[in-house]
Structure formats: C-alpha cells, structure tokens
Amino acid sequence: ADHCPRKRPFSFSVQRLDEKLGTAEDVLKLQTLLARYGYLKHAAIPGKYDRVTRDAVSQFQAFYRIYPEQDGVCDEQTVALLRQPRCGVADGPPMARTAHGRLAPFV
Fold it and tell me: What is the distance in angstroms between the CA of the first residue and the CA of the last residue of the chain?
C-alpha cells in the first residue's frame, strides 16, 4: 500500500496574475515559488502583488528569456515555466547572472 500522498501540481484560479487579477492565495503561491527559486529575496507583502513581487517575476522572466513579456506580469508562459519539475536548487544569485539573465558560464 502506498502511504505517501501524491503531490498535486499547484494551480492558480486565473491564467494571469498581476495587481488586479488573482486571489491572495494565488499570489501567496507565486511568492512562495519565487522565494524557493531565489527570486524573492526582499520582504513582500504576503498575498499582495506588490512592487517586490512584480520585480521578482520580472527577474524570473529575464532568466528564462520570456521576451517581450519581461514585464513583471505572471502570464501563461510564466506559469508554465513555474510548473516545470525542478531539482529544488535556486537559479543562482542575481549577481551571478549575466545581463541577459542566464547564469554566467563556467570559465
């Protein structure tokens, strides 16, 4: 018998999150993921799509080259990337990323 509950993929109540769309629960899920992946380093207001959250989404979009959508709005493409399986390691500190948003290559 399998005693471990299966993980359910997270989902948002809307396809797009910004200051006007999405519930506080949606925004809190987004903030949790952004913090886990190394993008939300500063204090954000939990459950509120504030400037800090928008900036973190924008950094995530830049890292994954979501262009021209690097606007801080959590759109369908951003949500799709957030839902991808990950190894649990953050994407690296912002200072280690190049101007194009990717990690600097090893020398």
Answer: 49
DSSP-derived secondary structure for 27-92: HHHHHHHHHHTT---S---TT---HHHHHHHHHHHHHTT--S--SS-B-HHHHHHHTS---S----
Report d(CA 29, CA 11) in Å as an integer.
Answer: 9
Note the pLDDT tens digit of each residue in 44-81: 899 999 999 999 999 999 888 887 666 788 888 888 88
Determine contact, residues 23/54, Cβ cutoff 8 Å: no
- Contacts of 16 by beta carbon, 8 Å cutoff, 6+ apart: 22, 73, 74, 75, 76, 79
